[in-house]
Amino acid sequence: MENTRSVLVKVINPSIKPFEKKVWLSSPTMHDPELEYMSEAFHTNWMSTVGKNINELERLACEKLRCKYAVALTCGTAALHLAVKLTGVKPGDKVFCSDMTFNATVNPVKYEGGEAVFIDAEYDTWNMDPVALERAFEIYPEVKVVILAHLYGTPAKLQEIQDICNAHNAVLIEDAAESLGATYRAQMTGSFGQFNCISFNGNKIITGSAGGMLLTDSFNAANKARKWSTQARDNAPWYQHEELGYNYRISNVVAGVVRGQWGFLEEHIEKKRAIYERYKAGFAGLPVEMNPWDQENSEPNFWLSCLIIDPDAMCRQERSDSKAVYVPEHGKSCPTEILETLAEYNAEGRPIWKPMHMQPFYRMNGFITREGCGRGLSDAYIPGGTVGKDGMPIDVGADIFSRGLCLPSDNKMTVEDQGKIIEIVRSCFE
């Protein structure tokens, strides 16, 4: 498919001037303590994978998330890998995974030779559908591990998912990489599973440029993870190894950055919430909705603000594996048009994370919807795909991906900047 962007992009409002300085999706928001703790590591010569910053960061995490043990690692993916390994996943074992997520959530299953089976999303939170999860256990009763991600900082339906896991004697691994600081029934995400993972990469709610953490209440699991993360070195006077290990331990310098960021978590969340609310108010009257959340039971961290376009307000949009085109239509728009228009004005948005079951690498993996096996139900000739018994698209993740996008959500964006972005998005529907 040829990219016809230059032909199809509309000049919607020449009075809107491009941003002189790029408005990012979500860039790091730095303060002063980060430099203090990094300098401490430098001046005390603890430029290694041991040191005070690491110890303090693990203590702060345990205190904040009310878990017993924390193991600071190079990234959230490393934490997820060790979590999967701790559950005992072996080659050929199936693992239920959130479908609407980044591939770092599910790749660790492959690292251990397991096979991810993707569980479709639901419309209330855009996260794993408990109905689909229960259906998956009916099809694959032998599965004993579930990996749940909280998309864009919004908690999933945790109580229902926990109950299903408990009923089937399955271990829950919680991927809270995007949701640090979010709560479900006043309890922070990243503390509901037997093993839980958070991330501090460059665009997260707090950052170390890199870094992640494994959280657990198991003393033995925490010690095993520490050993594996330092090349599985045995307690001997020489380098001796009875197990396969990994170079996953966090740097004391990176830990210093995260340690300095930690006290600003709530401040960052409040800024992200304000961005979300301004978008919600600014889009009033447009045929769009903001990414939803369970207001009765949860409190997101609002990491990314997203929107989804009403089905009858979508102009024609076609996507291949790497390109997208659209046909402009008065009063309608689509994610491709909005994202390309934002880029014209020097602002960064993103498509909704492409569901895992739609990824070429995972094209042969199982995919379970609320009505059972979801493979083979797509239809290029039916807008929105195959419809379920309830009259809604059977493939919820594909539908959200088709109609949704992530808006610029950077904490350093001014109110005026955001107002201009709202104006640009509104103009796409004119």
Strand content: 5-15%
Point out poorly predicted stretches.
1-9
Could you name the CATH topology of the largest domain?
Aspartate Aminotransferase, domain 2
- Report the CATH architecture of the largest domain: 3-Layer(aba) Sandwich
Tally of helical segments:
13
CATH superfamily of the largest domain: Type I PLP-dependent aspartate aminotransferase-like (Major domain)
Using the coordinates above, name the CATH class of the largest domain.
Alpha Beta
Number of strands: 18
Q: Portion of residues in helices?
A: 25-40%
Sketch the major β-sheet.
Answer: 9 strands, mixed
Distance between the termini: 27 Å
The side-by-side strand order for the widest beta sheet comes to: 1-9-8-5-4-2-3-16-17
**Tally of structural domains:** 2
The average pLDDT score comes to: 95
Shape: globular
Structural class: alpha/beta
Summarize the structure.
32% of the residues lie in helices and 15% in strands.
Characterization of the model:
The chain is of the alpha/beta class. It has 2 domains: 5-28 and 265-354 and 387-427, Aspartate Aminotransferase, domain 1 (Alpha-Beta Complex); 33-262, Aspartate Aminotransferase, domain 2 (3-Layer(aba) Sandwich). Helix content is 32%, strand content 15%. It is built from 13 helices and 18 strands. It has helices spanning 5-8, 33-43, 52-65, 76-86, 107-111, 130-139, 158-167, 219-229, 252-262, 265-282, 335-344, 396-403, 415-427, and strands at residues 69-73, 94-98, 115-119, 145-149, 171-175, 183-184, 187-188, 195-199, 212-216, 288-290, 298-299, 306-309, 317-319, 324-326, 350-351, 367-369, 372-373, 404-406. The strands form 4 sheets. Strands 1-9-8-5-4-2-3-16-17 form a 9-stranded mixed β-sheet, with helices on both faces. Helix 3 (52-65) runs parallel beside helix 9 (252-262) and helix 4 crosses helix 8. The two termini are 27 Å apart. 49% of the residues are buried.
